[in-house]
Amino acid sequence: MPAPSSRLGAALAVALLPLLAACQTDSRQQVLGSANSQAAQRAISTRAFDTADQGKVYQAAISALQDLGFVVDRADTVLGTISATRYGGGGLVRFTVTLRRGEGNRTIVRASGQLNQHELSDPAPFQRFFETLSQALFLQANAID
Asked: Which of 41, 55, 84, 102 is the most exposed place for a label (fewest CB within 10 A)?
């Protein structure tokens, strides 16, 4: 027969399980609960750059994130993804950037972000990122360090 303390621990775990499940949100709920429609969010978070050199865009994206105060957590050149985190006054910001080849000599860059585990739907952070990325690509193209 189990000890009374182990039965109490098991009962407590069973009682807390529904509360933990209620706190969890899945990605589907986050997408459906976003302030922007999916098409509007895609327009905010996606840009095309006139270069087929994904390596240069990839390096410029890393530089742009670092210039904006992010710490790059993961970078995968094969998949074309970069994940970065920044701690600030508003909380924890996570940013993920994905690169893919577009039509002709274009590279498509898509960014997504979260502030304290809530999707970023405000266009301002995306505009800052893409402006910084454009500047980094300009500096790179003109060999300015």
From this structure: 55
